[in-house]
Amino acid sequence: MRARREDVSDSLVPALDLTGHRQGLASATKQLAQQIDWACREIGFLNIAGHGVSEALIREMYDVSLAFFDLPLEEKLQSSGDPARNTRGYHPIGGQTLSYSLDRESPPDLFEALSVADISSPVSQRGIRNVWPTRPAELRQVWTSYWYEMERLAQDISHLLALALDLDETFFDKWTRDHNSTLRANHYPSQPQHPAAGQLRAGAHSDYGDFSLLYRDAQPGGLQVQTRSGEWQDVAVIPNTFVVNLGDLLARWTNDRWISTMHRVVNPPRDRASDSRRLSIVFFHHPALDAVIECIPSCQDATNPAKYAPITSGEFVRSKLLKTIDQGRATAAS
Ligand code: OGA
Ligand code: NI
Question: Is the distance from CB of 274 to CB of 221 less than 8 angstroms?
Fold first, then answer.
């Protein structure tokens, strides 16, 4: 049976709680799976409580990441990754423009970022290495602990997503055991100066992988999602919850039963802009590079045949990612 809106939430992004499910209550898991299917069809965003990630670890992750962004630019630039791949190292403000992934022109996004990948896989999937900052000294250890917590939570979410699609809960495991995820901290500095016309903290985009796990603070100038009717609406911050949002790959995998929703990060109102710095931490969960993304059996039938040709996860994501980086953009266009 499908869940209905009144069974889930009256807010745009439904708030779900994993506590009963994590305690092994079969009825809680079943109900969650129905709520998740509903939310993934309607909005592609969920807010989850009861996730089991310790608040102390999240706090440490925040503190150490902010301490990194507070270092002088020259020092941060020493941790720069390959500019053609934004999944490693430091990217300064102006280094990327998320709306480029949609072939739209706009001024650079107003955030800087630090990213790492491949922490748990024994062999780097792309043969490239992380560029860990040397300061703060404890950053690497804190980020590594956080990575493993995100891996655990992502595994739980991918089991629930499988159940929501009427599949065995282990359906995605073979493609996600060697997942090719990225952990990124986005720092949106305060805005003492007025941004340029059309310039946002992060331009409109959808994420590319199967899903993202986002932690954010409640600073002014935050996350918005685009509703079916095209309006932009704020996603309320509920303390100690993660936002789970679906990416393009999962929309394709489910034959568009589920949606990958456009979102953006807006500028703070001018009267609060001078003290509005914001940090978000995102775990972009991606299947293994060689996972073949081919319409899931429960998402097609005679009246609703598969719409998309099979493609590997690596091929699909690479084509998206390249467009968001200036240099990559030129390469992708040539
Ligand atoms: C992203 C993103 C939202 C946020 O990094 O892809 O959508 O709140 N971030 O920072
Ligand atoms: Ni995003």
Answer: no
